[in-house]
Every structure is written in C-alpha cells, then in structure tokens.
Amino acid sequence: MKLDKDQIRMVIALFVVAAIAAILLATTDIITREPIAAAQKAALRQALQQVLPEHANDPQNDKITLANNNVVVVIYPAKDSAGHIAGLAWEVVAPDGYSGSIRILVGVRPDGSVFAIRVTRHQETPGLGDGIVKNHAWLASFVGQNLGSRIWKVKKDGGDFDQFTGATITPRAVVKAVKGALEFFKQQKTAIFARLASAKMNHQAGGAHE
Amino acid sequence: MNKSEIFADGFWHNNTIFAQLLGMCPLLGVTTSAENGFWMGAATLLVLTGSNLVVSMVRGVIPKNVRIPSYITIIAAFVTIVGMAMNAWMHEMYLILGLFIPLIVVNCAILGRAEAFASKNSVSDALMDAIGVGLGFTFALVLLGGVRELFGQGEFFGFNVFGESYPDVLMFILPPGAFIALGFILAAINLINRSIASRAESRAQADALSKDIPATVEAQ
To answer: What is the pTM of this model?
Structure first.
C-alpha cells in the first residue's frame, strides 16, 4: 500500500494534534495529582468526622484493610487519647438504589451499635430519594441502634424505619446496607480488633513508646 | 461583523439554548439550582474559549478530511484539563456535576462553533465568539437553574427567598419541570424579541412620517 501526499499530511496532522494533547494532559495530571488526592482526603476526613465519636488520632493514618467475601473493606478507627477504640467507620455500598448504587459511611461503636451514618455518594431523585442526605430526623433514627434493637426494614416491609413520601426503594436500600454493615461487624469483630491490635504493635515497634 | 456584533450574536441572537435549542443534555441535567448552572456554564465557557482559540490558530494547517477528529481531540483535551482542575480545586462541585463535565466533549454547541466559526475566522474574532456564546450559555443555565431553584425550593443561589414555610414544589426539580420552565422562558424571550422588533419598526415608521408630516401639523 502506498500513501499519497495528502494522506501523509492527514496522518501527520492527526499525530501532532494527538501528541500535543497528550503532553498537555500529562502535564495537567502531574500538576493536579496531589491537589486531587488532598481534596479527596479532606472530603473523607470531613465525612469521617461526622460518623465517628470524638477522637485523638487521625483515622485515615490508622486505617486497616480486611477482606470480606472478596471485597476489601477499609476500616477507619477512632481512638481516644488513651488509645482505646472509641468507634470504627467504613464505607458500604447499597447496589440497589433507585438510580445506581448508594455509598454510605457507617460509623459503629465497639459494642456494635450505630454511632452515625452519612451518605457519601448517590444519584437518587432530588426531592424524593435524597432524603437519605437531607432528612436529619431519618438519619438520626439509626443512631444507637444495633441488630437486636430494631427490625432492619422500612415500615412498609414490616420494619422499624420510615420510608419517604414517594420514595421507598432508596431508604430500603440504605437500611439493608446498614444492616449488612452491622452483620459484617458482628461476624468479623474479633478479626477486626486483632488486626487493630497488631497494627498498633507494629506502630509501637517502629515508633516511640507510649 | 465587528467584535460587538459577534458578541451580541453569540450571546443573544443566536444563543445556544434560547435560539438554537442546542445543548439540552447539560441544560436539563444540571440546572436544579442556579449555582450548579453557573459552574457548568463556566466550565463550558472555558472549554469553548480554549477550543475556539486553538482551532482558529490551526485553521489552514489541518487538512480538511481530518478536521473533525482533530477538533474533537482538541475539545476532549480541554474538557479533561478543566475536569481535572475542578476535581483538584473545586472538589465538591466536581462531584455534584459528575458525569456532565466529561460530557461537555459531546456538547454539539462547542464542535459547532469550532466548525462553523473558529475554523473560518481570525483568532481574536474566534475568542470574541467563544466569550459571547459561552456567556450566553452560562446565562441560560443560570436563568433556568435560578427559576427551578426559586420555585422548587424557594431559594436562589442557596439563599432563602420565600421563607422556611415554602412548600418545595418537587416538579420544578425533576426533569419535567426543566422542560416546563424552559418553555415559559422561551416564550418570555420571544416576547422580548418581538417587542424590540416592533419598537424598531415603529421608530422607523415615525422617522419616515416625521419627514413629510411637519407641514400639516403646523397648519393645524
């Protein structure tokens, strides 16, 4: 196959355009990589602040990872000034929202009760399903509850949690996901605390003594 | 066309939304509030300015047959840069606008300006065109977002206007409300354009009359 002059010009033009675009994008990526990581960390810190009890540590520094049914769960612990675990938080995904999956940060006390929950990402209908973000009374109805103290379903399904006017699917998905989080904690509690203890030992071995 | 005509044409007479009814996807998707509309418009304005400038600079260099893929590559590069910058420095708004930022690539208004204007005009004209069209687009998004936020939630740019007791009118927040609000806005724009046109016409008539009437008026 032989290219004529026009075709070669086309190839060169497209190549140059694409090459310049690639250089520009790579430069922007280098410039923005750290600010993006910092912004994500700040957003996570703010969210963690809302679902964890008062703490003296940086939960993101002390995070541990645990495999749960082939899914890696990142757990952020909150420790008081004496180093005792005051609460734990991790993100759960409710795959069955009304439009797409809902990501929820669940904060749990060591006794297995909910400290607080916050929805970190969702695409639910504004004004209907987004009550899971805006309806503070509904979010508060989770606080202090454990697996035994509530029937973990919306009222329409015979449970203890309110659904919203015009939106049942969204709160149902959230309730189910939070219940799943509490069940995970109940099953894995020993493993989680063992991991936290060993992480602490490693930390102490490497750093200064208390 | 001089610079101010180019601007007026892009901003008002050929407004992407109000006159051409293009770019409906971001328009209906993000205008649940005035603020969302504003930042979506600003992102589009930036991309449009960049793409118009570059396309105008390389006009005559890019062979005709590969101009569309070249323009799309240029536009996609600017969209990605704007998206990364928003992710880094306006993280919260980036999460709210989400998918609509990358979708600026396929906003037909931007490729349309590259193809119809920037590829045929000087760099300074292309810049003026981008500013006019971009501000016109932003104006349209803020107007529709403002109307929907005001009637839907009783707020404007997050400030409470109608008081706490205002019952949220859900319909304005949902997509059908966007179409209905847009319809009323288009009707209002057409009324304004018509009254401008009829005023100009009657002034022209008055000018024409005043040339031969004075004699009769004085006689009375």
So the answer is: 0.80
